[in-house]
Amino acid sequence: MANANKLTLFIVIFMLAGILSGAVIHSYAAPGVVTAWADNITLLTDIFLRLIKMVIAPLVFSTLTVGIMRLGETSTIGRVGGKAMIWFISSSILSILVGLFVVSLEQPGSGLNLAIPLEATDTGLAVSGMSLKGFLTHTIPTSIAEAMANNEILQIVVFSMFFGIGGASLGEKFNAPLVAALDVVSHIMLKVTGYVMYVAPLAIFAAISSVISTQGLGILLNYASFIGGYYVAILLTCLVLLAVGYVMLKKEVFRLVSMLKDPVLVAFTTSSSEAAYPKTLEQLTKFGCSPNIVSFVLPIGYSFNLVGSMVYCSFASMFIAQAYNIHLSFAEITVLMLTLMLASKGIAGVPRSALVVLAATIPSFNIPVAGILLLMGIDHFLDMGRSAINVLGNGIATAMLAQDEGLLEEEPELVEREA
Q1: CATH placement of domain 2-403
Q2: ∠ at Cα 246 (409, 98), nearest 5°?
Q3: What backbone phi and psi angles, to 5 degrees, belong to 408?
Q4: What are the angstrom distances between the C-alpha of 55 and each of 50, 69, 176, 205, 241?
Q5: How many Å separate Cα 279 from the centre of its chain?
Q6: What is the CB-side half-sphere exposure of residue 137 using CA atoms within 13 A?
Q7: More confident residue, 241 or 195
Q8: What pLDDT, on a 0 to 100 scale, did the predictor assign at position 73?
Q9: What keywords does the record list, in alphabetical order (predicted)?
Q10: How far apart are CA 78 and CA 84, in angstroms?
């Protein structure tokens, strides 16, 4: 626990140092120096994220396969998977409603009175694959080696589920050696993650310093209304998740949040929920969730439980509509939100995934895609919030499902210390 507290302290210190250094460089350095600093300092962030991505594919495959095989019967796998999907859809709807409530109340786009562009605008976002056919075909891997090489989490999840169910059907006599081997692999990957996390504070310093040095603190003031409203929606969504978690977990939900603070901070400061995956997996197991449930539910959640992206999509789409004075009926808003929810499933790991979903969806509702350009400059600051709440949402969902299945121990760390 002492090491975890040290990591949190170092992350906060280096984050503040990044803000301070970025602000100083932006204010006093020559333009060439600012560009050179921003380009070169991000090398630390790139190294950290590459190290994390190096771990994710073998970790997801080994933990998910072992989890499914240990769950045993296909009926158990189907029951747990069904409960997980029901909660993921429910949490997506809840987060969409929170985003809609705040953006409708605050009206951050009103008053901009932008003219609708006559010509199509190129946002630079790749949206050609954003169709039902494209999504379904992309879900199924043609090669597990290719899926792992490209860190396609959803494809790895699909293959692992087939592999795990096939292994479980053979019975313990045949799959026991493979389960033992993959269990060792998962523990090795978690140990490697521990080493990689030593780099996290430096990576966080680099990421924050780079953005602030180029954008300056002023950009936050220019977009204060939008960013403020968006983070109010994020915090309200957190409270809703905690309230639902409290119903299932009682006071234990607060211990869970305390244990998840490190992965949430990592996701927030690096704008990557992927970077927090290994640590989230480890902390949920320490919290008392059955490793079988954690390794089964968490990877699926990373593809289907993007509550932060849902808050962002609902908030941003209505902001753009307000900026162009486009008034949508209740039916149009309902269809838009359902479309955004469906389009967002399974795009974890896609760069600027929430922006890609927006760019692919809003033109169908006569909302100019050019409005996305208003958000691109501050997308990093928005991505920080949605990445952090994605981690929290997946953590709470996994713990709730473990509790519902009767596979949650009470304060296992305390039991170990007493023993």
Answers
A1: 1.10.3860.10
A2: 135
A3: -125, 115
A4: 9, 21, 24, 22, 29
A5: 13
A6: 6
A7: 241
A8: 64
A9: Cell membrane, Membrane, Transmembrane, Transmembrane helix, Transport
A10: 10
Q: What's the start-to-end Cα distance of the chain, in Å?
A: 17
Q: Of the ranges 70-74, 139-143, 238-242, which is most confident? A: 238-242
The residue count for the chain: 419
Residue found under tokens 């053979």: 170
DSSP string, 226-277: HHHHHHHHHHHHHHHHHHHHHHHHTTHHHHHHHHTHHHHHHHHHHT-SGGGH
Positive/negative CA dihedral, 408, 410, 416, 419:
negative
Cross-strand bridge partners of residue 69 = none
Q: Which residue has the tokens 């896609």?
A: 350
Please provide the DSSP assignment of 376-394 as one string: HTTHHHHHHHHHHHHHHHH
Which residue is associated with the tokens 């789409």?
317
Q: Is residue 235 over pLDDT 90?
A: yes
Identify which of 93, 110, 125, 120 has the alpha carbon closest to the alpha carbon of residue 320: 110
Site of tokens 């234990």: 252
Take residue 418 and report the two structure tokens written for it: 């007493």
User: Which H or E run includes 174?
Assistant: helix 172-196
Q: How far apart are CA 270 and CA 265, in angstroms?
A: 8
Please give the Cα distance from 127 to 164 (Å, whole number): 33
Round to whole Å and give the CA distance between 93 and 97.
6
| Tokens at 398, concatenated | 């996994």
Mention every residue, 6+ apart, whose C-beta is less than 8 A from residue 270.
45, 48, 49, 200, 203, 204, 207, 387
CB 259 within 8 Å of CB 286: yes
Contact in structure between 72 and 240 (CB atoms under 8 Å): no
Burial 112-142 (b: 16+ CB within 10 A, else e): eebeeeeeeeebebebeebeeeebeebeebe
Highest-confidence segment of 104-118, 137-151, 235-249? 235-249
Q: Mean pLDDT over residues 180-209, rounded? A: 84
| Tens-place pLDDT, residues 299-341 | 888 777 778 888 988 898 898 888 888 888 888 888 888 888 7
Instruction: Quote the CA–CA distance of 241 and 392 in Å, as a whole number.
Output: 9
C-alpha closest to that of 290 among 300, 302, 298: 298
Classify residue 346 as left (phi > 0), alpha (psi -120 to 50) or beta: left
